[in-house]
Write a structure and sequence with these properties.
The protein has 339 residues and is of the alpha/beta class. It has 11 helices and 14 strands. The longest helix is centred in the C-terminal third of the chain and has 17 residues. The radius of gyration is 24 Å and the shape is elongated. It binds phosphoenolpyruvate and manganese (II) ion. Manganese (II) ion binds next to loops.
Amino acid sequence: MIIVLKPGISKKQEAAILKEIRKRGYKPHVMRGVARVVVGAIGDELTHQSLETLGVVFPEIVESVMPVQKRYKFVSRAAHPQNSTIQVRENIIGAKKFHIMAGPCSVESEQQLLKTAVAVKAAGATVLRGGAFKPRTSPYEFQGLGKKGLRLLAKARKETGLAVVTELLSENHAEMVAEYADIIQIGARNAHNFQLLIAAARTGKPIMLKRGLAMKIEEWLLAGEYILSNDNCNLMFCERGIRTFETYTRNTLDLAAIPIIKQESHCPIVIDPSQGAGRADLVIAMCKGAVAMGADALLIEVHPNPAEAWSDGTQQVSLEIFAQLMRELRPLILAAGRE
Ligand code: PEP
Ligand code: MN
């Protein structure tokens, strides 16, 4: 921590602060400027009592307290300089191969899911997405098929060989969802639900952690820390847009999150352009941007008949548009040094 002392403080006040810093387990290093004194407190902030409160406890002496150490540990690139890779059935996410996860927002019926799964597989997807438990804003909207939806996902996996990613909404369902999913999705609305994160981590399944609707990147990384610190190192982050003042799109897809997550963390990053804009007509362009910026995978909502979808109809692309998207993406994936 860097502790900046107020100008004009007495020697006695300075000594009191240095004593307090030592008491909390740090070694103070005093830097004397023309107008004020700055103290560097040497010690591990993750294992010693925090110095954050110094400004509140000594308001006449301390001007500001600035951390120099990150609050997260296991998710940080410092802890693991190489990129982490995640084995999902026969696929490895976070390595050279770029992955496309695609499928409907919600699992609606066997016919809808299988038709979509076969088409996305033929176009080159490796993971099938589909919500069986849906976090809907209104309680009167379709809530998902629940366990029946999970069974349909397992059936689609068996028929196509695609891996399955699906959302876990409740701690009570952790074991059940883990039984069917190859990747457990934690949705944006639950990104701050720490007990759910712990329950998901403890299933041992790979976790895809969406960014919360109003989540700062640091908070998102710390949410990821709940997964890794609970003995599950198979974490991927998923940027899906954040709430801003903009109304042309449902959310604002923060593509800057890609290089930032890559700098700060070793975990793979997935981009969801579907929730990201809420508009099917923007999906192709946003996918291209994500590939160019270094994402490891895409999560795309695809429906055989988006106009009749039971959820998120405006943002799901048709099977034909998905095939076109895959064709247009291929040269970009290669140009980005991926396969
Ligand atoms: C979804 O993937 O359909 C979904 C509900 O995602 P999010 O949690 O990002 O809104
Ligand atoms: Mn959706």
